[in-house]
Amino acid sequence: MIERCKDNIEINEDNIQKCTKFFETITGKKVVFTNSATSALFNIIQALDLTETDEVIIQSYAHPAMYNVLNVLGIKYIIAKNNGLMLDIDDAIEKITPNTKAIMYCEVNGFIDSNILKLKKICTEKNICLIEDSAPSLGQTVNGINAGSIGDASVFSFSSSKLFFLGGGGVAALSNSLYDKVKRLTSVIDYNNMEPGNMSLYLSKLLYIPLANHIDHFQEYLDIREKNFNIYKKYLDIYETDGSNTPGACTIFRPENIARKIQNQLKLFKIQSRYLIYPDLIGNTRNEHIDLPFHSELTENNIKLISKIVNSCK
Q1: Contact 208, 19 (CB under 8 A)
Q2: Average pLDDT score, the chain
Q3: Of 269, 261, 314, 258, nearest to 293 (Cα)?
């Protein structure tokens, strides 16, 4: 039994090295594995040592993890508009002040566009930390550049609907200036002090085993997503950016009254879709955005039926 445990520990260490190398190659940065992408964002913001006068710019419509982390830490944030699912880069740039210390760019559903490269240039010139929330974006590219490699810090998620699904977990990819701080914050273990940042936030060693297995199937997963995305394109006017064509969802935008009809019709056919997904702090994106089924078992006939239902709603 002891020898078996020792063998398992050795296997786990091999898997940790395999997973670390994979994400370091994808992002070109040092990585820290965490118990969730939200924890990774939490510790990145902590590591910036922001003061009460410092500001972080975020987009109006995005995964609520961004707002939650900033609210818990008491960080002041400035809301910029959305352009589709993306941050409106021009609006974000207009909102930069001398107090702006970070901008959070959320790649909702794995969509990313080339405007992030314009934003990166501005952030570098003004010494602003660009945080790339790439939680669902593993495998995405823009202008041939990997999602998660553009920001000074980025995160990926291994929760449900993500390319690598572990039931939880995440990873932070970090510039040299942030790596040591985030690693320290993530690895603290103090069960007598449950103040934010003092509980254990690292990824369990057991989860490196399925994660390493997912890495072996990385390209296969991407191919399935690309296939389904391209089938949807045959039948529907779906949301796209100038980034990779294999995002983590098939998204449509429709006027609010049509979007509600589509959602009600899909429910009648017991087709699960996502509508009214995230809070929208200043816009109407939430009421016009629907995510259609996008899992790997979908057939072309399934997609035809879904598309027919969508197109019938006028």
Answers
A1: yes
A2: 91
A3: 269
Radius of gyration of the chain (CA): 20
Domain ranges of the chain: 2-215, 218-312
Q: Would you give the distance in Å from CA 183 to the centre of its chain?
A: 20
* E strands present in 114-207: 129-133, 141-142, 145-146, 153-157, 170-174
Cβ atoms within 10 A of the Cβ of 309, count?
A: 18
Crossing angle (nearest 10°) for helices 2-27 and 208-216: 50
CATH architecture for segment(s) 218-312: Alpha-Beta Complex (3.90)
Rounded to whole angstroms, the Cα distance separating 223 from 212 reads 19
DSSP one-letter code for 30: E
Q: Which helix (H) or strand (E) holds 256?
A: helix 256-268
Cα–Cα distance for residue pair 305/271, rounded to 1 Å: 10
Q: Which residues of 236-266 are buried (b: 16+ CB within 10 A; e: fewer)?
A: bebbebebbebbbbbbbebeeebbbbbbeeb
At the top level of CATH, the class of 2-215 is alpha beta
Residue whose structure tokens are 């898997």: 15
Q: Can you name the residues that pair with 154 across neighbouring β-strands? A: 132, 173
Percent of the chain with pLDDT over 90: 82
Average pLDDT over residues 220-228: 94
pLDDT digits (tens, 9 = 90+) for 235-292: 999 999 987 667 889 999 999 999 999 999 999 999 999 999 999 999 899 999 999 9
Q: How far is it, in rounded angstroms, from Cα 243 to Cα 260?
A: 28
**HSE (CB half, 13 Å, CA atoms) of 4?**
1
Tell me the two tokens of residue 37: 């992408």
pTM, two decimals, is 0.91
pLDDT tens-place string over residues 32-51: 999 999 999 999 999 999 99
Which class for 228: exposed (0-12), middle (13-18), buried (19 or more C-beta within 10 A)? Answer: buried
